[in-house]
Design brief:
heterodimer; A: 210 residues; alpha/beta; Methyltransferase, Methionine Synthase (B12-binding Domains), Chain A, domain 1; Rossmann fold; 5-stranded parallel β-sheet; 60% helix; B: 590 residues; Ubiquitin-like (UB roll); Nucleotidyltransferase, domain 5; 6-stranded mixed β-sheet; 27 strands; globular
């Protein structure tokens, strides 16, 4: 019953109710992974509503916030459990750009789904991405940016990853309001997404966890 | 391939080579609305092909046009190519750009008259064999320590003799920049220019009396290369030629306005010896022809902060070629000289109490502070309040619904009392406020009852509109507006948090810019666009940037003051704030 209520509160973006239920479930000693699984279900449904034109940008922003708040409660509990992660993603906003709202929503949703995400921040040069790839060995690297200028930075970053001999070790997705199929081809990425819901779906696909 | 196009309803004919119709229109100075700058993103450049050979309807067009529209010959000007022969294009009302209103400023502040341009009447002694002092030194003996340019020096010998040594010297600070015959000290003029991203406003100022002689404005034609400044940065950054084109567009427009003003006031362009220019950092760079690329990318650094000073002939601005063009200083990032001019007029930097100054636009600038410290930020609120990304949204031009209220049904008023073509920003605010007040939408902007057809609320039905289509708003439109509002609310919330104050600590809110002038305060407060303080403490200042420029034109002190203001300002980069995303998410809701 709580599980259904919880998913419903999340999908309806009822922040107060969702947090209340999270605390209730944690206090009852429920397995945080079960809660996480419910979040995944909710995230799927929200993503679908977005793609169906029922939810919009503001709803995704709010989703990101609610998920972040719940994750703050769950993270310490999950850590104790040392669960095996479903996959690893390095995410960052490329050099010359500082927009990170979309990136943060993607991270919140991926974490809720049990992926490990290393957020390297905004305005990051190619070297920072390369360093993170070497250190964390992720399956997917996610490059974000909203400015048109960011497209050039995405290309430079992917070129640099290739020159460092790491391109065949990772899948790369470019994300942001100005990305499209053409940008994907131009930058040499494997995928693209112009909204957070699609981003999450495509990253899961790239990891093969779909 | 040569094509012959006729653009209706203006009936303009153009013969050119095969190209996209938007491109052809731009080259011919026909403005077609194009919010995204011709990238096929906004779908606002709808035109109707009446007849002629054009390219096939493509995927992008299918995305933005309904099947009915395609059947009626609607196309997107940025996607359709004129291929061959004679073509007639009709630009429908919703795609026309018409000049918008200028908001008359209610804050007329008197600056002490002390311009940098001085005129001195001289009756010089003729040289004789006993007095062989050279011409320039002869001027110096009356004018004191001055300098001049080779250009002026070349003119002086003949001019002094032709004028029979009866002349007026024109000085900019201590530099001789001109000579006129006889006594013209009662005729001294300057021009104040505000280059906005959507319109350019000029005021002709009498520097003898300090009075404003005439004012005029025009749409900034650069909008053809993008509604927002980012699109224009992108275009200008591509090549020197593009940068020059945008620069020329601004200067040509200014020159046209100047001609009108001079005609109206009965003076010659050459009698104007100084111009003060203000504008945001990007408009400023484009006007001076400075590469704007680095302003547009992190860490958002302009080429210069201090006043730029150059001669009119360097830019081709049609005042006296030896006269000077000065800009006020820029603040930081996109926040430019126009914002500084706003501060000069509202004087928030002189007051004990804490005031807020807000200029709502595609980028919204916000200042909060007093004589000790002012925090500033720029919020990328986007063009939703200008009607972009809103299905039936439009700018505040003729035929736009500018006011909406619900009493016994939906009531509205349009600009120019014409048949409605769409809804502009001020009415969108009214509408969202009324929908929320009447429980038609919830605090997240969703309809409480899903019975509305296609999740849309009909504002005006087809039989009353100019376009013969229903004017509606749907949940997506409302969402876009709420996100734009959220960007603005989160910006002032963060500044207030940083200052450790609440909205109730604010003594006055000054709303600058033409947008602010027409919004309903109660509705703006209800949706959270403006802080909830008593209505009589919210002052709509209008287009005051040009007034600030005029103040600096009239008084050197104001220019010094503008440099002093810079020292008070702390620029806050919102996206670098830790809690930004959280506050933003909260600020979106009603």
């Amino acid at each position: 019953m709580t599980s259904e209520d919880f998913i419903k509160a999340l999908v309806e973006l009822d922040e107060e109710r969702a947090l209340e239920l999270t605390k209730e479930r944690v206090e009852k000693g429920e397995d945080p992974l079960t809660i996480l699984e419910d979040m995944r279900k909710a995230a799927d449904e929200i993503g679908k509503k977005f793609e169906d034109g029922e939810y919009f940008v503001s709803d995704l922003i709010l989703t990101g916030e609610i998920f972040n708040e719940i994750m703050e409660i769950l993270k310490p509990l999950i850590k104790e459990k040392k669960v095996k992660k479903k996959g690893k993603v390095v995410a960052g906003t490329v050099e010359g750009d500082i927009h990170d709202i979309g990136k943060n929503i993607v991270i919140a949703l991926l974490e809720a789904e049990g992926f490990e995400v290393i957020d390297i921040g905004v305005d990051q040069p190619p070297e920072a991405f390369i360093e993170a790839i070497k250190k964390y060995k992720p399956e997917v690297v996610s490059l974000s940016g909203l400015l048109t200028e960011a497209i050039e930075s995405m290309k430079n970053t992917i070129d640099a990853i290739r020159e460092a001999g790491l391109r065949d070790k990772v899948k790369v997705i470019v994300g942001g309001g100005r990305t499209n199929e053409e940008v994907k081809e131009y930058t040499g990425a494997d995928e693209w997404a112009d909204d957070a819901a699609t981003g999450v779906r495509k990253i899961k696909k790239l990891i093969g966890a779909d | 391939m040569t094509v012959k196009l006729t653009f209706e309803p203006m009936g303009k004919k153009i013969e050119t080579s095969s190209n996209f119709i938007l491109e052809i229109a731009r080259d011919a100075n026909i403005t077609i609305r194009s919010d995204c700058g011709g990238k096929g993103l906004c779908g606002k450049c709808k035109i109707i092909i009446i007849n002629g050979e054009v390219s096939e309807v493509n995927e992008i067009e299918r995305e933005h046009l309904t099947l009915n529209e395609i059947r009626d010959g609607y196309r997107l000007a940025c996607q359709v190519k004129a291929t061959n022969g004679e073509i007639t294009v009709f630009i429908p009302p919703e795609s026309r750009i018409e000049t918008r209103k200028v908001a008359e400023s209610i804050l007329e502040t008197e600056a002490e008259l002390n311009p940098s341009i001085r005129k001195v009447y001289l009756k010089l002694e003729k040289p004789t064999l006993k007095d062989t002092k050279p011409d320039f030194e002869r001027l110096k003996s009356s004018l004191g320590e001055i300098e001049t340019s080779l250009n002026i020096l070349k003119r002086i010998p003949k001019f002094l003799r032709d004028a029979n040594w009866d002349i007026t010297a024109i000085l900019s600070y201590n530099k001789l920049i001109g000579v006129e015959k006889g006594d013209t000290t009662d005729r001294s003029y300057g021009i104040a220019i505000d280059i906005g991203s959507s319109k350019i406003i000029c005021q002709l100022i009498d520097l003898v009396t300090g009075k404003r002689l005439a004012e005029d404005y025009s749409e900034n034609p650069q909008v053809a290369y993008g509604e927002d400044i980012i699109s224009r940065i992108n275009y200008a950054s591509k090549s020197d030629e593009n940068l020059k084109r945008l620069q020329k567009m601004a200067i040509d427009t200014i020159n046209k306005i100047l001609d009108n003003l001079c005609k109206e006031a009965g003076i010659e362009n050459d009698e104007i010896y100084e111009a003060i220019v203000v504008g945001n950092s990007v408009m400023h760079h484009l006007f001076f022809g400075i590469y704007p690329g680095y302003v547009g990318r992190s860490p958002f650094v302009p080429a210069i902060r201090d006043m730029v000073n150059c001669q009119a002939k360097e830019l081709g601005v049609k005042i006296n070629p030896e006269g000077y063009i000065n800009s006020l200083p820029l603040i930081a990032g996109f926040i430019g000289a126009d914002a500084l001019a706003d501060i000069l007029v509202t004087r928030i930097h002189e007051k004990d109490g804490i005031n807020m100054l807000i200029d709502i636009g595609t980028n919204t600038e916000i200042f909060i502070g007093n004589k000790n410290k002012i925090l500033a930020c720029s919020s990328p609120s986007g063009p939703a309040f200008e009607g972009a990304h809103i299905k039936h949204g439009m700018k505040a031009v003729k035929g736009a619904i500018e006011k909406i209220w619900f009493t016994k049904g939906v009531n509205y008023e349009t600009i120019g009392k014409e048949k409605p073509k769409g809804i502009c920003g001020s009415a969108l605010i009214d509408l969202v406020a009324e929908l929320y007040r009447n429980d038609i939408i919830n605090k997240r902007g969703k309809f409480t009852e899903k019975s509305e057809e296609d999740h849309a609320f009909i504002v005006v039905s087809a039989d009353e509109t100019e376009t013969k289509k229903n004017i509606t708003v749907n949940e997506k439109d409302i969402d876009n507006l709420l996100v734009a509002k959220g960007a603005i609310k989160s910006a002032w919330t963060i500044l207030m948090e940083k200052l450790g104050i609440e909205p109730s600590d604010i003594s006055k809110v000054y709303v600058a810019g033409s947008f602010g002038r027409y919004i309903d305060v109660e509705n703006a407060k209800l949706i959270g666009l403006l802080p909830d303080i008593p209505t009589d403490q919210i002052i709509f200042a209008g287009d005051i940037a040009v007034t600030g420029a005029a103040m600096a034109l009239k008084s050197i002190q104001k220019r010094i003051e503008s440099r002093e203001i810079l020292k008070l300002i702390d620029y806050i980069e919102l996206s670098a704030e830790k809690d930004f995303n959280k506050i933003f998410a909260k600020s979106i809701q009603l």
